[in-house]
Every structure is written in C-alpha cells, then in structure tokens.
Design goal:
Number of domains: 1
Number of helices: 7
Number of strands: 6
CATH superfamily: Phosphoglycerate mutase-like
Largest sheet: 6 strands, mixed
Shape: globular
Distance between the termini: 40 Å
Oligomer: single chain
CATH topology: Rossmann fold
Order of helices and strands: EHHEHEHHHEHEE
C-alpha cells in the first residue's frame, strides 16, 4: 500500500481508527462469522454506546466514517453516534467458507494446528485474498485521512487485524499475533513518513467484576 499522498496546505494527516463491532451471539461463543448477518447482543449494544467516549478519549475526531455493510458493523456505528458516509465491501469479514459458524476448537479436531492467517479457509478466502482486500481498503481510507481529519473504519475481528498489520508493512501472517476484541479500537497513523500502530485493541472500560 502506498502512503505517498501528502496533505495540502500544511494540514496534518488524520489517523485511521479501526473499530470492531460489538458483541454478537457468535463472537461470544467463538463461532467464526463472516457472511452470517447477525445483530448485536444487549451487551454488544452497550459496548457500542461506550465507543463514543472511548474514541473521544483517544483524541479521534472523525471527518469520514466508513463501514462494512454487515448489520453488526452498521449497528455499532449508529449506536456509537456516527453517521456512515460510505459502505465499503472490502471491509467485510474474512470469508470463512466451510468454517462459517464453527469454533477454532472444533476445526482443530479435524485439522490440528489450523490458523486462519496462515492457512485461510476452504471454499473461503486465502490470506493473500484478504491482504489484497485490506490494502485496497487502507488506500481508500488514506485518501480521506491524508487531507486532514480522522477516518473511522467499522469492521470485524480478523479483517481489522489484517488492516493493522498491512498498514505497518507486515505480512498478513503477522495478524495472528494481534488481538481485536469486540468493540475494540486500533489506531493507525503516519508519523514523519513512518506507518505506525498508535494504539491496539483498546476496549471500553468495564465495571470491576463484570
């Protein structure tokens, strides 16, 4: 991905804030969810509402809001108080193919050692497919951020991790070492020409004992 674009008139480029959707029934159970269009749980709705304060605390001032077209991402954006400017198909979750709806523990019983960032999914997407998609989404978002103002990208767990490592110039396999919990925020920036992960997997505060 190129970050050669420069801002005009001395305007400092904005940051890219990757936001994973709030909790769903399948994110709670650990089931892989890509094309299945689930809504948020009540807990997920509360997480989404808390994102407003979390993003403000991180100093994110969005000028542009992009979102995956999946219901869980759009509902998260709306409950966080944002109007989506554009639906971006490249922000949908990794297509898990035959592994849709299955947990990692279940998959490992028939395929020990399987890992999505290294192995992809049968009848779904390969790591190379997702890397190319992440690069396109980042290029699109950066066109808005480069002229000033932060950009919010409401997306999903594995796709968000792919976005973060591809921004940092790392191979897609590096996504396996990042975490992205429900309603987590990861912030990317360009600092003196260097692509950085500014914050990673920042989640809304939860009551003690919750």
């Amino acid at each position: 991905m190129s970050t050669g674009a420069t801002s005009t008139g001395g305007t400092r480029p904005g940051r890219l804030a990757l936001v994973r959707h709030g909790q769903t029934e399948w994110s709670l159970s650990g089931q892989h969810t890509s094309v299945t269009d689930l809504d948020l749980t009540e807990a997920g709705e509360r997480e989404a509402e808390q994102l407003t304060e979390l993003l403000a605390g991180l100093g994110i001032r969005p000028r542009t809001v992009l979102s995956s077209p999946r219901m869980r991402a759009l509902r998260t954006a709306t409950l966080a108080g944002f109007t989506v400017d554009e639906l971006v198909d490249d922000l949908v979750e990794w297509n898990y193919g035959q592994y849709e709806g299955r947990t990692t523990a279940d998959i490992h019983r028939e395929r020990p050692g399987w890992e999505i960032f290294h192995d992809g999914a049968p009848d779904g997407e390969s790591p190379e497919d997702v890397a190319a998609r992440a690069d396109r989404a980042l290029e699109h978002a950066w066109q808005a951020a480069a002229v000033g103002g932060d950009v919010l990208l409401f997306s999903h767990g594995h796709l968000g991790r792919a976005l973060a490592v591809r921004w940092a110039g790392l191979p897609i396999a590096a996504g396996s070492v990042l975490a992205m919990d429900a309603a987590a925020v990861t912030v990317l920036k360009l600092d003196r020409g260097v692509r950085m992960i500014d914050h990673a997997n920042v989640v809304p505060l939860r009551p003690v004992g919750a």
